[in-house]
User: Fold these one by one.
Assistant:
Number 1:
Amino acid sequence: MAAPSTASIPSKNKAWAYSEYGNPVDVLKLDSNVTLPELKEDQVLVKVVAASLNPVDSKRMLGYFKETDSPLPIVVGYDVAGVVVKVGSQVKNFKEGDEVYGDLNEKALDHPKSYGTLAEYTAVEERLLALKPKNLSFVEAASLPLAIETAYEGLERTEFSAGKSILVLGGAGGVGTHIIQLAKHVFGASKVAATSSTGKLELLKSLGADLAIDYTKENFEDLPEKFDVVYDAVGQTDRAVKAVKKDGHVVTIVGPVIPPATMFVLTSKGSILEKLKPYLESGKVKPVIDPKSPFPFSKTVEAFSYLNTKRATGKVVVYPIP
């Protein structure tokens, strides 16, 4: 897709925003008169083509992080895929017309930006972006950044390496689908086990799980086998700690945390996307997008309602952005 000329970039654009905390159905509104963010020297202006939704978007909207949030009103969205239409004076690695993707909030919960990605245009620091893999569509690229970077950072934090075994709790979700793939195809796991509901077991196997566990029928902590790492993407550290080897690691992205499990919040980096580019371009690691996606921009509220059922497989994406 060709980038608009700088002269044709409007000063106002359409965006989904909220001015008070609450349920997305109640507070999220389409505003056709949002002023474009001022471009900083280290940022690029991106014409948004697709954006994906994350649970952190909903939790933020509900006011879970209001003590460390940026001021209202807030344009919703972390993940973006689009085309660079303008570059700041210090930007070195991108130019107008580049197709890019990334998570625009470096610190997910520490004063995330008031201006997110569910808008026609958004501004992003160069260091948070990467060039879109040529084999991926904008929808596929938009589904990746926050989820795949979270999966990667958690594996690094547990010192995961070739030959180790891992149990993934929530294997069919946005983050879980990437933990399975990265553990198997990037880090060289000796065994990957993962949990999901009955209908998603085949998906887990197709992504690289050696053992797919139906959480509706068996308790993973009762398995005789214990794992070097348990990566909890659902918030079950009380059970996860019973499934790990004596000197193993349990990491989670959802509280509360039962020791010796540890929790972390993603630090977004475009360099992780660059590092994973060969695996994405070779098809060893694939985006996983929910069958109901993409939702049209006009149905963003419905997309959030669906995400919040917690039944989505992989990622929920909004496309096209006008």
Number 2:
Amino acid sequence: MVVKMAAALRGSLVTLFKGLGGPRWQQLASRPLSVSAGLCSPESPPARADAIFKVTMLPGDGVGPELMTAVKDVFKAGDVPVEFEEFHLSEVQNMASEDKLEQVLTSMKTNKVAIKGKIHTPMEFKGELASYEMRLRRKLDLFANVVHVNSLPGYNTRHNNLDLVIIREQTEGEYSSLEHESVTGVIECLKIITREKSRRIAKFAFDYATKKGRSKVTAVHKANIMKLGDGLFLQSCAEVAQLYPKIKYENIIIDNCCMQLVQNPYQFDVLVMPNLYGNIIDNLAAGLVGGAGVVPGESYSAEYAVFETGARHPFAQAVGRNIANPTAMLLSAANMLRHLNLEYHSHMVSDAVKRVIKQGKVRTGDLGGYATSDEFTRAVIANLAV
């Protein structure tokens, strides 16, 4: 009986490792499987991972490099089996070029997983409308951005015990980079909405809700004004909703959604929306639970996953001052480990971060404390083994 269980477990593991991509699964699947390993108690820490997972790292601008240092320090202290391929891509620091972009894309396509900081987009027009951030998303087809807005135990805000998810389509909409001056002094800025991509993001949202056991999906729009563009998005969401009868479907106009989030955010579960609305709602919702320093995020395509902070601003005024909050980036890194099926290490990192915040002794300035970034990181490391 035990031998049969071991054989079944091996089959499951082979299927799992195949999903990781590349030759890595062959290496892992060929290793001998111990029967006792499959029967160990949940409390027992697993043996060392059989492989090192390569992950592309883009520190980005602002405090991004400092936050990535915190991630590397915590991973090293926790003996996390991840090796980073680091690339510095920045438009504002003159570290961006077509060659550098191709190097990053090659690494991402090989590794399938990346962690990145905010790549600052200059407001000046220099002949190219699409920023490097947008070009990365398009070339990798990172169409779905997911931000899980979750209250941190021990840190009280006006609304506690929040738990909602914002899913944003991020390859078209207002961020299509299609602008031109039709006549002098008149700029036409095109917003692109397609049925294909609207249905795709709607299906992603409903699949996410199904997988995570959530009960409601709300489509956010402005179809009362943009009757054709947002009307198509809304129609697409309604069509997809019919395929998921067990999940409640609603829609709400973007301006009312902002007000409702501030007044009563508990009414929402999963929200799905076009590009610009998602960018605004991400940051609004982050403010409900502590700000940009505490909310993780991630972006997905059919093949790739990129982990980043949920509310994207470079926090330029904090650069070099050792005051940025590493929480959001560390939680994003923990989510990345879960994506890599490194469940033990994922829980180890996220639990340590949440434990430090709950204890309330070491907090950065944005959470009302006086700790430096380094002090917070050291506190997380000290809690890894607790």
Number 3:
Amino acid sequence: MVEMFPLNSADAAYTKIRGMLSTLGDPFTRIISPKEYQGFRIGSDGNLQGVGLFINIEPRTGHLVVLSCIEGSPAARAGIHQGDELVEINGERLDGLDSEAAAQRLRGNAGTTVTVKVKDSVKKSSIREVKLPRENIKLSPISSAIIPHRLPTGQFTKTGYVKLSAFSQTAAEDMKNAIQELENQGVHSYILDLRNNPGGLVKAGLDVAQMWLDGDETLVNTIDRNGNMLPITMVDGHAITHDPLVVIVNEGSASASEILAGALHDNGRAILVGHKTFGKGKIQSVTELHDGSALFVTVAKYLSPALHDIDQVGITPDIQCTTEMLNSAMEASAKNNNSNKKNSVSSLEADSCIMVAEHELDMKESKGTAS
């Protein structure tokens, strides 16, 4: 680059390369600086210093949008929501900036602050400025609970609820421990919540899928630009549990979340409830350059086991959390109300999509009994 162009710095070289790569029309093919690449790798071990935002480029608009906020984080406390658009960071516009570069600007030492301008996802014309403190943030990928439930038959049962918020290095092991603990407590069905899970390590998503599936099922397919398809399959898989499963997804479920949801759905293991997913199914080759920078190049994309395109399409659930479905679920819940339910799960029971998921589990149980 130095020989071809009169470049005075590495930053100038990165800018020139970014301009060249932008002509490919793929916002995910990009070069990032050593500092940005180091930041990209932060978080896979479950720790970071920042404001608690997961962000990504919305492919159709090129805007930086919020995929999710970590519960209790500075961003969440400030009222930033999934779907909001980041407009500025510390007074600088974000036009043309990729998600890693933006995330790097949001990160920083705990005790410092960063000022952001955010466009509300509902009130499109509403832009507000928020000053966020940076803090030490622990990314706990798994949380779980038992939801006591009464079936239409009058029988009491336990539903195991597992929330998976990110696919870090510990996600698969944490998921395995959560399932085994719930099994030991005698649950009869499961709800796996992938809402606002922006993805992460795809291998972790495939490892989690194998905990729910048996045999040699196809987990996902890859297809390159020449149309060559390669299935990724299990080898002699053994599920930890065969109990009925509902997976909840939404617009913030992306990448590895979509791969996991597609694997469980297309193999007949789970019913999908919620809203259409984000639609990020690109496969990238990452080349670390000699100066510590990295080149990300899109080389293929993912298709679900049933060959449904994920990228820029997303996954449509079997059942959306519509008012009609919610009314049915609420009626069932009212009839089967259990006054001894613990307060610790009351917020889960008031969640509309979880109510719909429980209703679907009821239907599955009644069908199973009838047969």
Number 4:
Amino acid sequence: MLCAEAGSELPGCTHLSTRIYPHPCAHPVREALQEHGGDAGPAPSSCSGRGVASSHAELPGCTMTLSLAAAARAAQVSICLFLCLSWGSCCPPSCQCTERAGAKAVLCSARHLEEIPKDIPQDAVFLKLDTNSITRIPSNAFRHLSHLEELDLSRNAIEKIDGAAFKGVAAGLRTLDLSSNRIRSIPKEALLMLNAKLRLANNPWHCECALQEVLWEAQLDPDSVQDITCHTAPREEYVGKPLLQVLDAGVNFCSVRQRTTDVAMFITMFGWFAMVITYVVCYVRHNREDARKHVEYLKSLPSTQNPAETISTVL
């Protein structure tokens, strides 16, 4: 006896749709909870145990308690859980994972992200987070990515970078792109042990000693150095100029800060010295006044001795 085609209704033969999931980390559980139907292929034409797709096909000599589709879904769930939980290699929902030169690349470009995804695979070597709306790089944001070599954070809205933002990956990074953001300054400790080639162009930098120290220690990409310009600076004449050009002209922002610090310390020391001198003068004047009053008191006392002798004896 033959089963009916998908969608037909024959007595004694019930057909459930079958779906195919090409990727083991698709979402079979979510799909299985949906109503049966949709674009399903035709049911097998034979009611043999080999071809039945229904979980309760009740025909004489044709009974099957577990459908092939349900078994496939269960296997896909097991594989996905094993990969995601044991290896941590499933791709984040907002990203695409692929292979590049035999290494895993995680592509999250232009996905409207406002923060760095938490579930990036641990074996990621290339990570692209460019053209999003990320505003901050928090501490230990990439600490679990010990294989990371290239990190692209360009064309975001990054304003703040924590001191331990690249902790755990600094030694292995080869390229770090922070260009075209809203970065005004970057903490020096964030770049400690960082051997990566840095791209810092097209940011509203505040040219000061801290930025100068960062540039002294960082390995800048030669192609982007000229695009690091002073958006603000201690002196108006530096605004709008490339920072490298200002430094080549002999300007040293750190020496300006050192002179300012020296002047402040000198003023503070002079103030303390003036206070000490004032205290000593007041102390001496107070003692002289007390001594004068004491002498006048002694003169007023009745005595048979010559007042002059009494005074000399007291003194």
